[in-house]
């Protein structure tokens, strides 16, 4: 868990505000859900056999005996809120963005924190694959505006028609090579065979090269949509790689799944992930509602984001005599309606004030000394153009 101070907090605000401005352009509105949720919500949605639920939850009993946990991700809470507010009964399509802390009790390493922040978007009510394309486009726009390079990986996880026969097929294949797979994979053959596909163990990976691929066993509708998505990305000039082992670590996905990765941040290279979850709303007691979304890992991109050049802005107000100090306050109140104002409370000499104005990166230094008090004026210097002048106080 980390503090954000100075440079990090500036980067955090820049990344979040850039993501918000892009999300708004795609019609997303803000949603805020609690950090604490009932544990059962994540068991039902993310899945009991997932690492997140099985090993990584900050879970405890509260004073009322409720089994609660700190949210490990944002989608389940947004879907719960969506159903709770009966938005699933409304015919209009709904799009939400959110950001904030998530908690996973993982083994800490570079890029892997126990408290981390996500910016996420969830779009409800759209079955068309055009929405899958649009949401991927939105993510590319966010990364482009932040000056961050990425590789995009996509896959299709099929639907309730094509996934079950594929799963059976895969289990048969895995059972045959069981003795050679790692312990984790052996456990997963029963609990969550699809997750075996993204095992990081090199021996498992080479054994899995010949495994049946879901992409070759999709039903007609999933196959058509996946091919269409590829074509839309090709036409838009968005490069991607089809990764048949991309299964994502959360159980609620179906059809399109994607990850954005960066080669510049080490082993924890996923900077965003998402996909379709057409059955989750129904699963959490809502009306069947197709949905798709993503989340960006903010800490993983903060360092990569190109920060805008800092420009001098606002006013620095200083007094050069004790009596002049309080005459700064009416000016500060007036000017703060339109710009950033820094008031120095101690009367100081000229040079000291100029250093102070420079430190806060002010565009204008405004000083009042004995002469200005007597004449009812202020002395103003534009620190960009170096132009300086005296102005009547009421005109400033
Ligand atoms: P996720 O892939 O688990 O998806 O997380 C999304 C992103 O959060 C990851 O790509 C990564 O950048 C970041 N992240 C995850 N764990 C950590 C960690 N321990 N430390 C630092 N960063 C981390 C989800 O959470 C889904 N809810 C995404 C989604 C939204 N799917 C549909 N809608």
Walk me through the structure.
By secondary structure, the protein is an alpha+beta fold. 36% of the residues lie in helices and 22% in strands. It has helices spanning 7-25, 39-47, 51-55, 75-84, 129-145, 163-176, 183-191, 193-196, 202-208, 220-235, 280-283, 298-302, 328-335, 350-359, 370-375, and strands at residues 29-30, 36-38, 58-61, 67-70, 94-103, 115-124, 151-156, 241-242, 254-261, 270-276, 291-297, 315-319, 341-343, 364-368, 377-382, 388-392. The protein has an eight-stranded mixed sheet. Helix 13 (328-335) links the parallel strand 12 (315-319) and strand 13. Helix 1 runs antiparallel to helix 5 and helix 5 (129-145) packs parallel to helix 10. The two termini are 47 Å apart. The model has no long low-confidence stretch (mean pLDDT 96).
Structural class: alpha+beta
Q: Into which percent range does the helicity of residues fall?
A: 25-40%
Arithmetic mean of pLDDT? 96
- Termini separation comes to 47 Å
Strand order of the largest sheet: 1-5-6-11-10-9-7-8
Strand content: 15-25%
């Amino acid at each position: 868990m980390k503090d954000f101070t100075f440079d990090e907090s500036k980067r955090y605000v820049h990344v979040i505000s850039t993501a918000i401005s892009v999300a708004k352009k795609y019609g997303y509105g803000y949603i805020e859900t609690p950090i604490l949720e009932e544990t059962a919500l994540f068991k039902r949605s993310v899945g009991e056999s997932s690492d997140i639920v099985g090993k990584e939850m900050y879970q405890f009993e509260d004073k009322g005996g409720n089994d609660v946990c700190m949210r490990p991700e944002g989608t389940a809470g947004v879907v719960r809120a969506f159903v709770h507010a009966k938005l699933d009964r409304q015919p209009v399509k709904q799009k939400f963005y959110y950001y904030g802390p998530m908690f996973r009790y993982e083994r800490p390493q570079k890029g892997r924190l126990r408290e981390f922040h996500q910016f996420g978007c969830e779009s409800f009510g759209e079955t068309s694959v055009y929405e899958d394309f649009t949401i991927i486009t939105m993510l590319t726009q966010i990364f482009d505006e932040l000056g961050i390079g990425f590789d995009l990986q996509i896959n299709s996880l099929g639907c309730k028609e094509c996934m079950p026969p594929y799963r059976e097929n895969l289990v048969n294949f895995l059972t045959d090579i069981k003795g050679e797979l790692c312990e984790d994979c052996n456990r997963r053959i029963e609990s969550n065979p699809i997750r075996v596909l993204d095992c990081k163990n090199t021996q498992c990976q080479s054994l899995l090269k010949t495994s049946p691929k879901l992409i070759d066993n999709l039903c007609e509708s999933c196959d058509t949509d996946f091919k269409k998505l590829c074509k839309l990305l090709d036409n838009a000039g968005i490069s991607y790689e089809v990764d048949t082992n991309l299964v994502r670590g959360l159980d609620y996905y179906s059809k399109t799944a994607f990850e954005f990765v960066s080669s510049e941040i080490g082993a924890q290279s996923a900077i965003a992930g998402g996909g379709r979850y057409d059955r989750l709303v129904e699963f959490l007691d809502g009306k069947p509602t197709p949905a798709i979304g993503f989340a960006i890992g903010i800490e993983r991109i903060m360092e990569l984001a190109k920060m805008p050049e800092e420009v001098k802005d606002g006013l620095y107000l200083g007094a050069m005599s004790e009596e002049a100090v309080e005459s700064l306050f009416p000016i500060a109140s007036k000017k703060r309606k339109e710009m950033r104002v820094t008031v120095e409370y101690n009367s100081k000499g000229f040079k000291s004030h100029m250093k102070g104005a420079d430190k806060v990166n002010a565009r204008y230094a405004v000083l009042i000394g004995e002469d200005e008090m007597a004449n009812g004026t202020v002395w103003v210097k534009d620190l960009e153009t170096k132009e300086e002048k005296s102005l009547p106080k009421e005109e400033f």
